[in-house]
Amino acid sequence: MDFNGGSELHNNQFYPCEESKPLLGEMSAPTAPEGNNNAKLGAGPPCRRSLLLPCSSGMRYKLLQEGDIQVCVVKHPRTFLSKILTTKFLRRWEPHHLTLTDCSLVSATPTGYMETALSYSSIEDLQLLSWDNAPKYCVQLSVPGGTVLLQAANSYLRDQWFHSLQWKKKIYKYRKVLNNPSRWEVVLKEIRALVDMALTSPLQDESIHQAPLHIISTLLAENTNLSAQDHESIIVAIAPLLENNHPPPDLCEFFCKHCRERPRSMVVIEVFTPVVQRILKHNMDFGKCPRLRLFTQEYILALNELNAGMEVVKKFIHSMHGPTGQCPHPRVLPNLVAVCLAAIYSCYEEFINSRDNSPSLKEIRNGCQQQSDRKPPMPLRLLRPEPPTPPPPTTLSPPPLALSPPPSIVNSSEIMVELERNNNTANVLRKAPTGGDSEPNLIDCLLVSPALSALSIQLPAQADRVLACFALILKMLSDYDDWRPALASLLQPIPFPKEALAHAKFTKELKYVIQRFAEDPRQEVHSCLLSVRSGKDGWFQLYSPGGVACDDDGELFASMVHILMGSCYKTKKFLLSLAENKLGPCMLLALRGNQTMVEILCLMLEYNIIENKDTQLQIISTLESTHVGLRMYEQLCDRQRELKELVRKHIVSDVCAVLCLQDADLARLLSSGSFGNLENLSLAFTNVTSACAEQLIKLPSLKQLNLWSTQFGDAGLRLLSEHLACLQVLNLCETPVTDAGLLALSSMKSLCSLNMNSTKLTADTYEDLKAKLPNLKEVDVRYTEAW
């Protein structure tokens, strides 16, 4: 009996015997001998076979884990009777649902031919066969004592089963060989062969590249005594697999170790750079694989150790952003920020853990979670400036007070806080025990002291370098215009440990980033200076005079106030918050001649924000103390005198007409004289409604109209659109207008500036207005559906 005939697949070509070649030569391509008897199951002429190598442009298959297939077992005939029983006419096929495990081929119904699992180690040969007058689409597995035939439903499934079985068999063999290494020269060759096999496999599956990486990472984890040269050889060998795959956690740990021990190695630049770039571009959540983040962090620190230092890091950040003005990869910035935040947190991790007596991330990773296993708390060093040397005491003078002690080191179980007395005659030390539920954190303790800038935390040298590196990266990120809105949003909750905010060096480095936010005219950027929610401090409070991070006498605070007041970000509410919480710093900066603060104080008086008469007098005195303040206060007084004159003529009812003006008041005002040439009118923050439109249409020369934060509605807009053809600038911010009234503006062809911020504008109406108003150049649609 023999199996011969023509093949319907691959033009009578068959895959050669894999077991006949050594493991290192499995990816070579020798031509099989024509007279190979391994192709025979009985007597007869041999089958001709030639090698078919998978190519990059050939068929691709998904790795099978399980599936339904027909199974037939043919044992080698030894007698005439057994030869008759194995003929194709008496052959029996069984349906089985087979599962390809890591070590064997198992049936879901272990009966018949598949009563016992078929181990990959028992498969001597694996090939595709076809013969005349026989079932098609068969895979032949040569086992001791016979052959196992697997019949698929079609040629594609047959090839898929063949490649999947071939892959499982090879991976099983490589796992056994590399789990018991003998010589590292041989191991390195096996690793290279394993990588080549994964790269040339026709299977397309995540596990095709991940399985070799896991095998190699296990090998490295179990053999920690490798030399640095062996490390680099292995990294270079597996580099092709990392081009399109994240390294597994154990391999990340190995890479981190290499970055720490050999930061100047060329492997860091040539091999790790594309790996880290791929992580930053494609990683979605570092929380699922924190070692990817740790590897990225160590890689950046390794770049910082090169001769050029931060210049190399800067070039790397620029390469991640790209040469254009818009970064094409949306995940790069969040991932970089996550790496920076984690690295900055790690600098203060020992302080935090020693304060709350909790295990560090490193201890948890190493399994050292017991109290007795952990290191003693790291001392917290609070540095104080040297006190001035007192004059030598005389015999008539009282005994001198004790001077402050030199910089001391205290454990986390006690935090020393220096308090400065109001009379500056002596300093006392308050010891704040940290036991029990009332344990104060470091920031709470530092805020007790008026001399906040006199305290700072001293970090170890390595932590100080890490802090400087990643703080500088945050500064680099803030220099990119397209990244700044997202960066401001990510940093708005102040995601830093409290110890970092008490560290003068860190807050000084971070000040540049906040300054960039304060200089950005986009509201989505500078609005992130405020707190993310009420009751929680934001960067505005942190860098204001008296805040934890303020070290510039309020210059940054003034810049933030200026940009926030320049936008239409709820000005009245913002003024009220300044009057309640920051009136003192505002007055102090106004005394120093800061024009922004002078304007703020004048607005508080004009809008009647301050109700207390004594406080009003203090503000007036502050304004009169500088030339800028005196000039602006005189202008305010001129406006007030004009209002008083209107009161005297009974045109308006109160001096506070700016805020309390009603429709009737406006009617009396406009009827008191001739305003036909009036071009600019501001009714912002008044109580006028759509009814005042009947008076406004009597101003034919009106070009600029400000209705910000009024109750002016749709009916008034329709009336204005019919009569005020010359209107060029219209501010409807925070008014109750809707699409019904806004559509009427399409007839006002002279409009060149339109503010519809915080209205009920829809996207369709916005597109319609843009199409019908050709002169419209400035449009504000923030906080609307069209935004």
From TrEMBL:
A GO-annotated cellular component: nucleoplasm
Gene3D superfamilies in the record: Ribonuclease Inhibitor
Domain C-Maf-inducing protein PH, first and last residues per copy: 60-178
Compositional bias ranges of the Pro residues kind: 385-404
Annotated region described as Disordered, given as residue ranges: 362-404
Highest taxon above the source species: Eukaryota
Protein name: C-Maf-inducing protein
Protein species of origin: Astyanax mexicanus (Blind cave fish)
